[in-house]
Fold these 2 entries.
Entry 1:
Amino acid sequence: MVAKVGVDGCRAGWFYVFQEPSKFTFGVVETLTELVENCPADATLFIDCPIGLRDTCATPRGCDSAARKLLGRPRSSSVFSIPIRAVLQCSDYPSALAQSRQLCGKGISKQAFGIMGKILELDELLADDQLTQSRFREIHPELCFWALAEGRAMTYSKKTEQGFQERLKLLKVHCPQAKRVIDQAMRQYRRAELSRDDVVDALAAFVTAAVPNDELCTAPLYPEHDSRGLAMENVYRQWIR
């Protein structure tokens, strides 16, 4: 059986989790190259990081627009606009903002700039490597939880205790060991390396990945591809309506 891995970025790099026959394996790695090396060779990795980018065009990715529409307010605000590929090498926010405005007529948020390094890392890993490309799929945690709740967006922000409990309740339906994984991870790593939200989001990716491919949906239903052939999609679990 192909291993399914849930991945989310964290302060120390990347947090990952997957299930082996007798236990859950999780950890923090500094780079995605190390992540690939630490996972089973046949693993599919569901990651909370953009895959497929606009080069210099300000047109929103269809997968982001579709996710916002499904989530509705206020959770749609968690899906932010993704920087164009041309600005990913910028080392500071003013430079990235100015170059984005010059190239596509639109700026970028500080939130987007804050994860540009991770977007660049994943984009470079996938560049011109079709085998690696086939192993990664993009998820958005809030869309994953929306699907786990059968089309209901989360009521509370994930930053609140109510939001944590709301998401944990859903995770435990599909992964009874979720609370134990969260507790163990938070004991093992310092807060400067890993936050509880990172573990929760990676578990959302894992429970999404854990179903057969024919039980997965994408937003939008027919994803477009970028100039490198990367599918721009947000993957989530389907449910019986």
Note: Residues 4-53+62-71+121-235 form a domain with the Nucleotidyltransferase; domain 5 fold (CATH 3.30.420).
Entry 2:
Amino acid sequence: MSDGYSRSPKLLKGAIVQFSAGMIIPIPNIIIFQYNPESLNRTLTPFDPDAAAKKAAATPTGEGSTGPTGPQEQPFDPTEQFNLQLFLDATDPLEDPEKHPVAFVTGVADRIAALEMLLYPTNTGLLGSLLGSASVSLHGVTLGAQATTKIVANKQVPVILFVWGPGRILPVRLTAFSVDEMQHNQLLYPHRAKVTIGMRVITSESLRGDKDLVSSQGKDLAAFAYDFTMKQKQVLATLNIANTVESILGILPF
């Protein structure tokens, strides 16, 4: 007879966390994965000193050339990329439509839209257009006939954190995005979908060097997350020394 206690460990869910200065409520937008991907593809591209040396040689002096790069010299971290597939399903919410009215009407379209908006600059959209129109109108009232030049702000995508357990919290930028929609309802909203996402990790050095980033608070947190994850990776690499010592002792003849 079951006593209601499960011995199965609680499985943490992955998530994507968005920080944006243009949000109405000053809290992060957390997109929790409904199901963790069965596999996660990770690629690290090492720095190529030969390609860097050729590029530097082709750059005229005084235009950013740093000269030839030595064989062991590396000015920045390797480029890290993630590729994964997310599966979205509205079957469970649809069993109780009164508690899940959004899923009853739109299926998983709201979750797909939340992921898609990560690709768009935070100062665009309906709210951004309304605020921009109001700003232009106010400037027109103030400047009168002299208001002939429209100031266009630089567009910036939101700061995004890819959270994959406590040991992997990294700032990323989406580099690939595709959606396969399945089982549409009467309004042609999908009840199921497979979202394929590609992400490139942004280093803390790049974040701190970007003064035009939309949210400085999100930027600082993202930089801290990158450094925190790198520290954990260094600790794990150090722990591997114990395995190395054990392996060496195992092959010694004495």
Note: The first strand starts at residue 15 and ends at 19.
